[in-house]
């Protein structure tokens, strides 16, 4: 097929469709052609589905009208044609389907045959990252509950906990768990339609659908799934129309016992600008937190990731990295990748000295983060008490309040988990820390003095 074939097809579509329709759906398509194949690339699975439902027949007709239709293969993919091109010229693979794999950047491509019945049976739609599974998710105190709940959901989708809401700070494994659920459901029921998407993508698709008068298709698409996995729901804050649409999609899916999984970077009730009716519905199923991992879990994660990369990581090295990089798992992974790349590049083996050198700037940056020690000293000075009082068992008000204040600041300003903070305050339980945070929050709104203490300390510690 010559490239004029696609140009010809474009011209004909342009004459048939409205300007908005053409600009919204056809223009963004990228094309890669060979003599017998034409691969169309669209930015996301919703887009692919829409093209398949609305335009694929016409495109096929235009493209094949002057050719032997049996010879022509049209496929639809999520991704980018240029990256696909360069991947295939690097000799990764010659077939259209395989050569597009690198284009999707961990999102499974969604090839669609021009024979519709084949398309739906051969290629159930999903855009899961198959690298995220329960098998490679390291369990620790900080994520135990979330993992157990996610496993339950994967085993009984739509029944166990619906919705499942996982919340916690950045890079702690929320997305990993979400994909793990999707992948396990698919393993049991390969025909399931599972859609993963970031909440910003949901919004962007909705805006596109509004612009092109295709809201019905938008609604149908998201209401036809077996499981909807929607990431970082905090982005819905103050987006009224998106919340409205999501509300109806959500209700529809829950009514039909279709699974909904949501992640959020904080406890959803704390999101300002999120409608109450959504907040209350999110609480219908199960809400679980993921905390930053403790030291042992960080070591285990490093060992597991090194093992997956076939790297032998000495335990003392893993321990050193885990002790120094505490912020989140993504950073931990980043540090390990850097160590491995440096070792491969220089041909040196991974010893403690080598790692100290390879990570020196990362470690310096981490050391600048506010430490619990620092918070304890500052709070003790502010209230004119001793650090040892904060760590002691004393329960008089003059000690308890500063202790609660210091715990709250530690939770806010560091990436330490509740158990780690509890430990740092004389071996207290994580529930004590949680109680302290709630107490200070409550007191801040009741007492000007406490509010002032909190602001003063926050300022001192943050400058
Ligand atoms: N317990 C774990 N075991 C193995 N890998 C983990 C674990 N927790 C997180 N990771 C890895 O850390 C990286 C970041 O995780 P993920 O993207 O799931 O974080 P997130 O909580 O969704 O963050 P964000 O809020 O920024 O989207 C991923 O590569 C993930 O595989």
From TrEMBL:
Identify one Gene Ontology CC term for this UniProt entry. Answer: cytoplasm
Cite the domain annotation text: Domain I is involved in oligomerization and binding regulators, domain II is flexibile and of varying length in different bacteria, domain III forms the AAA+ region, while domain IV binds dsDNA.
User: What subunit structure does UniProt give?
Assistant: Oligomerizes as a right-handed, spiral filament on DNA at oriC.
Q: What is this protein called?
A: Chromosomal replication initiator protein DnaA
Query: What organism is this sequence from?
Result: Kangiella geojedonensis
Q: Name one Pfam family in it.
A: DnaA_N
- Which of this chain's residues are annotated to bind ATP? 171, 173-175
What keywords tag this UniProt record?
ATP-binding, Cytoplasm, DNA replication, DNA-binding, Lipid-binding, Nucleotide-binding
